[in-house]
Amino acid sequence: MTIPRAKICGLSTPEAVNAAVAGGAAYLGFVFFDRSPRNLSPEAAGRLVEPIRGGPIKTVAVTVDPDDALIDRLMATMKPDLIQVHGKETPSRVGQIVARSGLG
Q1: Which residue ranges make up each domain of the chain?
Q2: pLDDT at 104 exceeding the cut of 80
Q3: Is residue 2 classed as helix, strand or coil in its secondary structure?
Q4: What distance in Å separates the CA atoms of residue 53 and residue 38, rounded to the nearest whole number?
Q5: Could you tell me if 101 and 74 are in contact, meaning their C-beta atoms sit under 8 angstroms apart?
Q6: Bridge partners, 58 (sequence order)
Q7: How far is CA 50 from the centre of its chain?
Q8: Contact 59, 83 (CB under 8 A)
Q9: pTM to 2 decimals?
Q10: CATH topology for the 7-101 domain
Q11: Please, are residues 101 and 75 in contact by the beta-carbon 8 Å criterion?
Q12: Residue 30 neighbours by CB under 8 Å, 6+ apart
C-alpha cells in the first residue's frame, strides 16, 4: 500500500510549521508572492525552516513568475529543497530556474 505524502502550504509562523510537522507533512510550502496574504520574505522563511533543515521533511518555495533575484535570495537564505512555480513560466524559464538554483 502506498502512503500519500502531503504538502502543507502557506506556512508563516513557527506554530504553523510545528503543527504541520506534528501532523506528518512530508513537504512544507512557503509562499513568495506579493499578492498573497501568506507572502513571506526569503529571510523569514529561512528562520522558519532552520529547525527542520536536513531532516526528512522537504521544504518548498512556492513562487509565481520568480525573477533571478528572488531565486538567488531563496537559495542564499531559505535554501529550499524544491522550488514550485505557479505562474506563466515557460519550459525554458523553468530550465533556467533549475540551472540557477541547482535544484534539479
Answers
A1: 7-101
A2: no
A3: coil
A4: 21
A5: yes
A6: 27
A7: 13
A8: no
A9: 0.93
A10: TIM Barrel (3.20.20)
A11: yes
A12: 9, 10, 11, 12, 40, 45, 48, 49, 59, 60, 61, 62, 78, 80
pLDDT reported for residue 90: 95
Q: Give CA separation, 37 vs 26, 32, 66, 68, 73, in Å.
A: 23, 10, 17, 23, 20
With contact defined as beta carbons under 8 Å apart, do 85 and 63 qualify? yes
H helix and E strand count, the chain: 4, 4
Instruction: Bin 10: left if φ > 0, else alpha if -120 < ψ < 50, else beta.
Output: left
For cell 498573497, name the residue. 36
pLDDT at 3: 77
pLDDT (tens digit, 9 = 90+) per residue, 2-56?
Answer: 878 899 999 999 999 999 999 999 999 999 999 999 999 999 999 999 999 989 9
Provide the 8-state DSSP code for 89: -
Cα torsion 93, 43, 36, 57: sign? positive
